[in-house]
Design a protein that fits this description.
The complex is a heterodimer of chains A (263) and B (333). The radius of gyration of chain A is 20 Å and the shape is globular. In chain A, the strands form three sheets. A five-stranded parallel beta sheet of chain A has the order 5-4-3-10-9. Chain A has a three-stranded parallel beta sheet with strand order 6-7-8. Chain A has a two-stranded antiparallel sheet with strand order 1-2. Chain A has helices at residues 24-33, 52-57, 61-66, 82-96, 116-128, 141-150, 171-180, 195-203, 213-216, 221-240; strands at 3-5, 8-10, 14-17, 38-42, 71-75, 100-103, 132-137, 156-157, 187-189, 208-211. Chain A contains ten helices and ten strands. In chain A, α4 packs across α5 (116-128), α5 (116-128) runs parallel beside α6 and α8 runs parallel beside α10. Helix content of chain A is 39%, strand content 15%. Chain A has 263 residues and is of the alpha/beta class. Chain B is of the alpha/beta class and 333 residues long. Chain B folds into two domains: 1-90 and 143-196 and 288-333, 3-Layer(bba) Sandwich (FAD/NAD(P)-binding domain); 93-141 and 198-286, D-Amino Acid Oxidase, subunit A, domain 2 (D-Amino Acid Oxidase, Chain A, domain 2, 2-Layer Sandwich). In chain B, 27% of the residues lie in helices and 26% in strands. Chain B is built from seven helices and 16 strands. Chain B has an eight-stranded mixed beta sheet with strand order 5-6-4-11-12-13-10-14, with helices on both faces. A six-stranded mixed beta sheet of chain B has the order 8-2-1-9-16-15, with helices on one face. In chain B, β11 and β12 form a beta hairpin. In chain B, α1 packs parallel to α5 (148-161), α1 runs parallel beside α7 and α2 (68-84) crosses α7. The chains are: A alpha/beta (263), B alpha/beta (333). Chains A and B meet through α1 and α2 of A and α3 and β10 of B.
């Protein structure tokens, strides 16, 4: 079954960031090879090239991303205040023509952890303005509740700090998060370094995984994107297939009854 | 689009006096062609992004964040520059990270080849200024570096001495030129003809330190703000470089300056006392795959998209053009 994000059916459960690839061509190949349908794009100075002559000739990073055919999820990466995040979201809506926004309000430049208070405030403002907000948050249940009450129909808890590649650093919290928000689409956002970690998140029942550095900074980003696509699909299938629980001790897989008596 | 030239051209015009144009003009001259180089600026280096380049001939280090092709096509630059630039320094390059960013060195070593792992003692032997500051790094003994502001004038002098002609201060159009074959090395100015060309802004800072000096380029890895420092002699260090998807030519931004200067102090705190002698921004021409391309359309050959690798990949580009015009290869696509 497809993933439903703000009434939009998405087949691929792998959402990809667009920063720090060796080239736009490699980014495009990664999107294609992994069958990614949603890409997140930052509106910061590094990302779009929408100034000067590029605007006139239309040849810039932004046009190259648009050509990929993927749905664009603009983000407010690097915003430190509610005002900055709201303004960036408004600009993104105008430039990229979508009311989707991955909302990041960053508390600390080193840890890049979400400022959850600012996040809830910004989410409230943007939802009132008609945005579909995808909040980058921690695995805190109370904050998740506030975001849902503000009108968020998707939650994106982190697995670990942005770019750290640590994987699921607090499994119990994420497990509790999944159980608590049973009917809200949950996307693991940030901290994933390897396909096995993405797979684990999907096995836990998360609906999708969003990542960037693990692919863009890999030695072969296109191959790594494919590896993630497979791992995410496998993890999701495993969740649906209802895996067995670990058991203390051995359990024979062949029945013991009816064996030939060779004594 | 790719058709054979009929016989060996009698005359060749090269448009653009950046590193691509100069290396191409000189290579064609050396292959025995009559070559005329046209550059719209009066002064060498003006409005040319090559002037602000690091000048690192580092095919292996550049594999980080680039394609294998950059490495494979870049290796020949080591010989080319050794033959055409007297002031080349062949001291290798050094890649370091702070202890807490060790994972970056591991990642870098996996991605690149031709390196030797070095510990504190070897680092101290290579760069005594860094004594005791770094415990782990990678040394690329085969890599080299040049100073673009010495190398480019030298190329022009060699070209003139070999009998090449140079016209400066005049913007020319390929169709108006009388030479039989035109090589277009104009970089971003060719974006009307090369539709997929885009600009990637780069910013650099030159500092002068009387306390700290290095013998080779040093790359300080960092998950967010990597930086490189290239020694220019007489206490001058070039600190670079940002890479921003923008074709804005405006002066260096506060943020970029802050990031570069903050990073350089991580390499050595004494560099905090260095004087800033220049901050400059340039816009590099790039194709969607960030790899240069040589393309023939009728009598015009376009060599463009050298991106961050002008000095590394110009010799390869020039060789493609020479071979094309000698009929050695016949066609290029």
């Amino acid at each position: 079954m497809a993933l439903n994000l703000y009434d939009c059916e998405i087949e691929s459960r792998f959402l990809l960031g667009t920063a720090r690839y060796p080239s736009p061509t490699i980014l495009k190949s990664a999107i294609k090879a992994a069958g990614v349908e949603v890409v997140t794009v930052s509106l910061r100075r590094e990302s779009l090239g929408l100034s000067g002559e590029a605007k006139a000739t239309g040849q810039n990073f932004w046009s190259l991303i648009s050509q990929s055919g993927a749905r664009i999820l603009p983000n407010t990466a690097g915003c430190h205040s509610v005002k900055e995040a709201v303004t960036t979201a408004q600009m993104a809506r105008e430039v990229m023509g979508t009311n989707w926004i991955k909302l990041e309000v960053i508390s600390d430049d080193v840890a890049l952890n979400p400022d959850v208070f600012g996040l809830v405030d910004a989410a409230r403002i943007l939802i009132e303005e008609g945005f579909n907000v995808f909040p980058y948050t921690t695995a805190d249940l109370g904050v998740g509740e506030r975001l849902v009450r503000a009108g968020c129909k998707v939650l994106m808890p982190w697995a670990a700090p942005i770019g750290s590649g640590q994987g699921l650093s607090d499994r119990n919290a994420l497990q509790a998060y999944r159980q608590h928000f049973a009917s809200v689409p949950l996307i693991i956002d940030a901290g994933i370094g390897r396909p096995s970690q993405a797979s684990e998140a999907m096995e836990m029942g998360f609906d999708a995984v969003l990542l960037n550095s693990a692919v863009s900074r890999a030695g072969d980003p296109v191959l790594m994107a494919q590896a993630f696509a497979q791992a995410i699909e496998a993890g999701h299938a495993a969740y649906k297939a209802c895996p067995i629980e670990p058991y203390q001790g051995a359990m024979p897989s062949s029945p013991l009854m009816g064996r030939a008596d060779l004594s | 689009m790719s058709k054979q030239f009929e016989g060996r051209p009698r005359s060749i015009g090269v448009i653009g006096g950046g590193v691509a144009g100069l290396v191409t003009a000189l290579s064609l001259k050396a292959a025995g062609f009559n070559v005329h180089l046209y550059e719209k600026n009066t002064q060498l280096g003006e409005e040319t992004c090559s002037w602000f380049a690091g000048g690192m001939i580092a095919p292996w280090c550049e594999r980080d964040g680039a394609d294998d092709m950059v490495r494979d096509r870049g290796v020949e630059a080591l010989t080319w520059w050794a033959e055409h630039c007297e002031t080349i320094s062949q001291n290798g390059s050094l890649v370091l990270s702070a202890a807490r960013d060790r994972s970056e060195v591991i990642r870098f070593s996996r991605l690149t080849q031709e390196h030797i792992s070095v510990g504190e003692r070897e680092i101290n032997d290579l760069e005594s200024a860094l004594s005791g500051r770094f415990q782990e790094g990678l040394f690329y003994p085969r890599e080299a570096h040049i100073d673009p502001r010495i190398a480019l004038p030298e190329l022009e002098r060699r070209f003139l001495k070999a009998g090449g002609e140079v016209t400066r201060g005049q913007e020319v159009i390929a169709d108006d030129l009388l030479e039989e074959v035109i090589v277009d090395c104009r970089g971003l100015s060719a974006r009307r003809e090369l539709k997929t060309l885009r600009g990637v802004r780069g910013e650099m800072i030159r500092i002068h330190s009387s306390e700290v000096s290095f013998s080779r380029p040093i790359r300080l890895l960092h998950p967010r703000q990597p930086v490189y420092v290239v020694p220019r002699g007489n206490g001058i260090l070039m600190v670079g470089a940002t890479s921003i998807e923008s074709d804005c030519h405006a002066p260096v931004t506060v943020r970029s300056a802050y990031e570069l200067l903050e990073a350089v102090q991580r390499l050595h705190p004494a560099l905090g006392e260095a004087s800033i002698i220049e901050m400059s921004a340039g816009v590099r021409p790039a194709l969607p795959n960030n790899i240069p391309n040589v393309e023939q359309r009728g009598r015009i050959i376009y060599a463009n998209g050298l991106y961050r690798h002008g000095f590394l990949l110009s010799p390869w580009c020039a060789r493609q053009i020479v071979e094309l015009l000698q009929g050695a290869k016949g066609t290029v696509v």
